[in-house]
């Protein structure tokens, strides 16, 4: 009986020692990520996952590190694994959508953001990122619906007004685009890209004087593309 107790105690001690050793890697990975040592973080999570293969949190965290490194396919693979372990890990669906968006899989991004929103429909960033994905696909009406929804929830979201203006431009609704740019520039009068995009809308409406004034303003704020376009339209 003593041997059984001794062996059980020894085995338990070993298990806790191993678990503690594993979690040292997890802790190191977390700290390295916090210090912007992304590859170091990936290596520590990998050491941890070599021993603990069913920890969805670790795959999720390593996926974030891969995303920050621009390794979008690797981040997607980690989010896939996290979701295989726990299909209700909804943040992994959202982050996988971001990886697909940045990696150029715009349809996959739309599908992930749509799936995520079926579970968590209050995340306005998911609507925004889906709208950007729709714009990349040339589905401007769908993008517009998402931007409109965001602005119904937050009427002071200036960045969304700007992106909605770009979407109106894509739909050739230049007057509406200018209205959105006006709102943004009244709020943030040093937003160089806003002046640049408004100039393009004005040129589309044959307002060359107004467009050139906006280009000059964008150029004075350091927007290099404005100077190139000014040479073409504002001689």
Describe the protein's architecture and organization:
- By secondary structure, this protein is mainly alpha-helical.
- The protein has a domain at about 155-235: Alpha Horseshoe (Serine Threonine Protein Phosphatase 5, Tetratricopeptide repeat).
- Helix content is about 80%, strand content about 0%.
- The chain is built from 13 helices and no strands.
- Helix 5 packs parallel to helix 7 and helix 10 (about 175-185) runs antiparallel to helix 11.
- The longest helix has about 35 residues, at about 1-35.
- The radius of gyration is 25 Å and the shape is elongated.
- The relative contact order is 0.05.
- Mean pLDDT is about 90; it is low at about 1-15.
List keywords for this structure.
235 residues; mainly alpha; Serine Threonine Protein Phosphatase 5, Tetratricopeptide repeat; 0% strand; disordered N terminus
User: CATH homologous superfamily of the domain at 156-235, by name?
Assistant: Tetratricopeptide repeat domain
Count the DSSP helices.
13
Radius of gyration: 25 Å
First-to-last CA distance: 98 Å
- What sort of overall outline do the alpha carbons produce when their principal axes are compared? elongated
Largest sheet, if any?
none
DSSP, total strands: 0
Strand content: under 5%
Mean pLDDT figure:
91
CATH level-two architecture of the domain at 156-235: Alpha Horseshoe
The computed structural class is: mainly alpha
Q: How would you spell out the order of helices and strands?
A: HHHHHHHHHHHHH
Low-confidence runs: 1-17
CATH class of the domain at 156-235: Mainly Alpha
Overall helicity: over 70%
CATH topology (fold) name of the domain at 156-235: Serine Threonine Protein Phosphatase 5, Tetratricopeptide repeat
């Amino acid at each position: 009986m003593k041997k059984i107790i001794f062996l059980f105690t020894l085995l338990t001690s070993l298990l806790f020692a191993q678990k503690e050793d594993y979690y040292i890697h997890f802790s190191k990975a977390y700290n390295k990520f916090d210090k912007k040592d992304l590859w170091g973080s990936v290596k520590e999570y990998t050491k941890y996952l070599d021993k603990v293969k069913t920890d969805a949190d670790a795959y999720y965290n390593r996926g974030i590190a891969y995303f920050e490194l621009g390794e979008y396919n690797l981040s997607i693979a980690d989010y896939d694994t996290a979701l295989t372990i726990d299909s209700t890990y909804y943040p992994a669906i959202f982050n996988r959508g971001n990886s697909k968006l940045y990696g150029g899989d715009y349809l996959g991004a739309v599908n992930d953001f749509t799936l995520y929103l079926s579970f968590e429909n209050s995340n306005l960033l998911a609507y925004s990122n889906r709208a950007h994905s729709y714009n990349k696909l040339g589905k401007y009406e769908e993008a517009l619906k998402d931007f409109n929804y965001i602005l119904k929830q937050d009427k002071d979201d200036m960045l969304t007004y700007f992106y909605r203006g770009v979407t109106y431009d894509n739909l050739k609704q230049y007057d509406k685009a200018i209205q959105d740019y006006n709102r943004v520039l009244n709020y943030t009068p040093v937003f160089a890209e806003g002046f640049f995009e408004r100039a393009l809308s004005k040129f589309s409406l044959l307002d060359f004087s107004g467009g050139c004034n906006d280009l000059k303003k964008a150029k004075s704020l350091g927007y290099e593309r404005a100077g190139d376009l000014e040479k073409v339209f504002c001689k």
